[in-house]
Amino acid sequence: MKAILVREFGGPEVLKLEDVPDPSPGARQVLVRVRAAGVNPADTYIRNGAYTLKPALPYTPGFDVAGIVERVGSEVTRLRTGARVYGETLAHGGGAYAELAVCDEDRVHPLPDRVSFQQGAGLGVPYGTAWRALFIRAQAKAGDIVLVHGASGGVGIAAVQIARAHGMRVIGTAGTERGVALVRAQGAHNVLNHREPGYLKRLVELTGHGVDIVLEMLANVNLDHDLDILAFRGRVVIVGNRGRIEIDPRKTMGKDAAILGMTQFNADPAELRQIHAGIAAGLENGTLNPVVGKELPLAQAARAQVAVMEPGAYGKIVLVP
Ligand code: NAP
Q1: Does residue 74 lie within any of the structural domains?
Q2: According to the model, what pLDDT value does residue 152 have?
Q3: Looking at the structure, do residues 82 and 152 belong to the same domain, yes or no?
Q4: pLDDT value at residue 71
Q5: H or E element at residue 104
Q6: Does residue 141 contact residue 163 with C-beta atoms inside 8 Å?
C-alpha cells in the first residue's frame, strides 16, 4: 500500500509517500481501508521529535481515520467487513496517513451514511477530546456557561456543537472574521475575536458572573486570564498548550476554582464507550456535524501539516488517499 513514512524527525519535508507492506490486524483489531485521515496538531509535534510520544523510526503519522472495514481480527465481534467506520489508530505513533490502517476494536465506531468520510476523519480525536474535556473532566451540565477558548479549529468546533446540543450557554473565540462567522454558525451564542485587545472584558458584560467552564486551546497564552473570568467553582480544562506561563494561584482560591489537565489518549474503555455513545447520538440526531475546511491528497501531507499550525483555523484539515 501507499503510506506516508517518516524516516527521520524534522520539518514537514520528512513526510514522504512510499510503498510499504500492508498491515495486518491482531485478534482484537480491525483493518480499515482509509478514505480520509484527519490531521491533528499533535501529528506535527511528534514529527518534530520533541514530544512525549516519540515512535521508533520509521513510522506512519496520523491518528484519525474514516473508511471501510476491510478485515477484522479473529476475536472481533462488534464490527463486520464492509462497515462504514471512523476510528483512531494508536499503533506505533499513529498509522492513519495511509491507504490501510489498523485500529483496536474499542477505538472504531460506526459512521452513519449521512456523515462523509472526510467528516468522519474529524471525529475521533477532536470530538473525543471535546466530549471528554466537557463531561468527564469538567463535569459539564445543562445551564453551564462554557467558554471555548479557541473555537474555530477541530476540537473547538466539536466543543461548540456538543455544548450547544446539551443545553449549555456557549461563548467561543476565533482569531479571524471568517473563524468568528464559522463559530457562530456552529451554534455559539456569542463569539469573540481572541486577537482583539481586551476581548475578555466583554465576557463580564455577557455573563455577569463569569464562566463555569473554560476549554482552553492555548494555555501558555491564556491560563492566567482564564482564572480572572471564572465563576465560583469554575473549571479550566487545559486541552492545548505550547509553552510555559506564569499564573497567580491565588486567583483559584477564593473561587474554589480548578485547573484540569487532560489528554484524549488517557480515556479508558469505560470512558470510550460513554464518549462514543454520546457522539453516535449526536451524529444520529444531526446536532454533531464536523466541518472540513481543507481536503488534500495523501501525497500532500507536508502541506497539510504546515497548514494545521497556521493561524486562521477553519474546522478540520483532512488527507484523502
Ligand atoms: P486547530 O484545529 O489547529 O485549532 C487551533 C485553535 O486554537 C483555533 O481555534 C485557533 O484560532 C485557536 N487559537 C489560536 N490562538 C489562540 C489564542 N491566543 N487563544 C485561544 N485560541 C487560540 O487545533 P485543534 O485540533 O482544535 O487542537 C487545539 C489544541 O488542542 C492544539 O494545541 C492541540 O495540540 C490540542 N489538542 C489536545 C488534545 C488533548 O487530548 N489534550 C487533543 C486534541 C488537540 P484561530 O486560528 O482562529 O486564531
Answers
A1: yes
A2: 98
A3: no
A4: 97
A5: strand 100-104
A6: no
Decide whether any atom of ligand 1 lies within 6 Å of the 320 Cβ. Answer: no
Q: Give 310: exposed, middle or buried? Use CB within 10 Å, 0-12, 13-18, 19+.
A: exposed
- Ligand 1 centre to CA of 240 (Å) is 6
Using CB atoms within 10 A of its CB, is residue 254 exposed (0-12), middle (13-18) or buried (19+)?
Answer: exposed
Whether residue 206 is found in the same domain as residue 315 = no
Same domain for 134 and 111, yes or no, is no
Position 179 in a domain: yes
Q: Is residue 185 domain-shared with residue 109, that is, in the same domain?
A: no
For the whole model, what pTM was predicted?
0.98
Decide: 112 in ligand 1 pocket, CB within 6 A. Answer: no
Q: Is the CB of 186 under 6 A from ligand 1?
A: no
C-alpha cell, 202: 466583554
User: Rounded distance, CA 221 to CA 230, Å?
Assistant: 16
In a domain, 282, yes or no: no
Expressed as residue numbers, the domain containing 33 is: 2-123+290-320
Query: Which of 44, 52, 63, 155 for a ligand 1 pocket mutation test, highest count of atoms within 8 Å of Cβ?
Result: 155
Query: What atom of ligand 1 comes closest to residue 310's alpha carbon?
Result: 46
Q: Can you give the CATH number for the domain in which 83 is found?
A: 3.90.180.10
Tell me which residue has its CA closest to atom 13 in ligand 1: 150
Q: Give the span between the Cα atoms of 234 and 231, in whole angstroms.
A: 5
Question: 197: which residues sit within 8 A by CB, 6+ positions away?
Answer: none
In angstroms, rounded to a whole number, what is the distance separating the alpha carbons of residues 301 and 306? 9
Rounded to whole angstroms, how far apart are CA atoms 190 and 315? 18
pLDDT > 90? residue 7:
yes
Dist CA 163 CA 171 (whole Å): 10
pLDDT tens sequence across 228-287: 999 999 999 999 999 999 999 999 999 999 999 999 989 999 999 999 999 999 999 999
| Ligand 1 neighbourhood includes 32 CB (under 6 angstroms) | no
